[in-house]
């Protein structure tokens, strides 16, 4: 049974605006990225989602396809974004079966809570490789098709009229806000996300003259996601919710709507930017990873390890 539209898309958008377009998404089986892709598919796109787990990725692809009758959604599992060859093969299959690539969402990421003392060199490298190298590999593998789509869909700069066949040649990097002010137990992710942001800015500058746009979506705390459940201690949930400027967490639909904005005609002159979708969360002094049983600085000074972290504590 198709998921109700209200769960992943607002009523602001016109049906069919992404007709005959193709979106390629790494991390596409995740809670947030699957909602982004589902919204695009509902509005006319076909899609290819990439993941590590074969069964999960294929299952989510079939589920996303129910968003629109006749939609084509391919799920390609067993893809490691750290391996460029894996992405090349996935891109080749996407292009062969769907005809090209117009939009890319680089959403694959790794995260867990760990202090610097607890964070091993290998664990730090793993997050950097998945987030930064994985985003770069995604860009490199899809770049020829993004450039082709950008050329085909350029806006007429004299009349300011969009291409009659819609938009294309656009990439979104999914980042975060934790590196804006810093957050305990998230050093590895902060460094990785800062790298992703810099990558997106460079893409905007180098490929803007070719008609491509590159932007960042930085989600804040989004309800019912693996990330929020993993990073926010359960004993801090009620107080943390109450402390939000809007008095609530975000919804995956908020991220999906932001994605539609950037990929549609509304985002034609938006590039090199970061769209923060967090309800002003990052402007508050308290961080999600430092609440409840992980209260800052008491937990750090205790010398205890953050629970549920795989691997051994690093030796200084």
SSE topology sketch:
Layout: E1 22-26, H1 31-42, E2 46-50, H2 54-64, E3 73-76, H3 84-98, E4 103-106, H4 121-152, E5 170-174, H5 178-181, H6 187-207, E6 213-219, H7 226-231, H8 237-242, H9 252-263, E7 274-277, H10 298-302
Parallel strand pairs: 1-2, 1-4, 2-3, 4-5, 5-6, 6-7
Helix pairs in contact: 1-9, 3-4, 4-6
Can you summarize this structure?
The protein is an alpha/beta fold and 316 residues long. The protein has helices at 31-42, 54-64, 84-98, 121-152, 178-181, 187-207, 226-231, 237-242, 252-263, 298-302, and strands at 22-26, 46-50, 73-76, 103-106, 170-174, 213-219, 274-277.
Describe the structure.
The chain is α/β, with parallel strands linked by helices and 316 residues long. The protein has a single domain, classed as NAD(P)-binding Rossmann-like Domain (Rossmann fold), CATH 3.40.50.720. Helix content is 39%, strand content 11%. The protein has ten helices and seven strands. It has helices at residues 31-42, 54-64, 84-98, 121-152, 178-181, 187-207, 226-231, 237-242, 252-263, 298-302; strands spanning 22-26, 46-50, 73-76, 103-106, 170-174, 213-219, 274-277. It has a seven-stranded parallel β-sheet, sandwiched between helices. Strand 2, helix 2 and strand 3 form a beta-alpha-beta unit. Helix 3 (84-98) packs parallel to helix 4 (121-152) and helix 4 (121-152) runs parallel beside helix 6. The radius of gyration is 19 Å and the shape is globular. The termini are far apart.
